[in-house]
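User: We ran a pulldown and think these components assemble together. Before we commit to crystallization trials, I'd like a predicted model of the whole complex to look at. Sequences follow.
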Amino acid sequence: MSAASIRRLIGVAAPLWAGEAEVVSAYWTSPKRTRETDLLWLRRQCFKEFWGSGVGKYDRGGVVLGQLKNLLARGAEIDVSIDRYEILDAIDGLRAEYSHYCAFADLHDELRAAGTPRLNPHVLEAWPEEDALTALRYRHQDEHGALGMRACKFTEGGYCTLFSSGMALEGRPGVDGRIAAACAKVYDDEFEHMLAGIAGIAEENLGAADWQLMERLVAEQLKARIRMRNAQFSLPLSDARIAAIERGDIRPIEFDYARAQLAA
Ligand SMILES: [Fe+2]
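Assistant: Here's a predicted model for the assembly, 264 residues in total across the polymer chains.
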C-alpha cells in the first residue's frame, strides 16, 4: 500500500518538477536574460535562503533569523522538554541554509556594477508569486495540520532543479561558470534534505483518503512553485507553456529511488 502510494505521489510530482527545471534551463539561453535579470534572480534566491519560511517547525520569521530566535528562546528547555538532538538537527539545518545565502550573496556581489552597494539581508524582498506560494503553504498547514506540513516538506526544494540546472552550466566561461560553482555548493545538502522530506512520508501511516489529499496538496504547491520560479527568473516561460506543463505536456523528471532509499 505505502510503496504504491509513494510511487503514485511521485508520479504526480515528477512532471511538475520537470516544469520547474524547464523554467530555469530556458532562462539561461533566454533573450530576456541580462546582467540585471541575473542580479534580480540572485537577490530573490538570497531572499528565499534567508527569509523564506513555511516549511519548518522553527522557521517562522525567516529561515535564518526566525530559527535563531526560536532556538534562543528554547535554550532552557533542552533535555527538559526538547531532545538535545532535535536542537542539533535544527542548528545543522540553520548552518546549511545560511551557507546557501552566503554562496548566492557572494555571487551577487561579484557581479554587481562598480559603485553599487553590496547586498545585505535587509534589502531583500519577496515577489508576488513567492508570497503566493508561502500563503498556500501556510493555508495547507492551517487547514490540514500535520498532513499539510508533510506536503510542504515533500515539495520543499522542488527536486533541487534550480541547482541541478545551474550546475549544468559548468565549463561555460564567465558568469555561467560561477553560477555553476555556487549551485554545486548548495546542491548536495539540499538534495539530501529534500529526499529526507520525501522519504519521511513513508513513515506516516496514511489512509487512502489521506494519500489522495496529499496528492492534491503536493500538486497545488508544485504548480505554485513553477510560477514562483518563472517570476524569479523574469518569465522565461509563457503562460501558455506553463498551462501545457500543468496539463502534463512534459517529460517527467526521473526520480532517483535508489538515492532516496525508497523501494521503486
Ligand atoms: Fe537552502
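The longest helix spans residues 175-203. That may be worth checking against your pulldown data before setting up trials.

User: Thanks, that helps.
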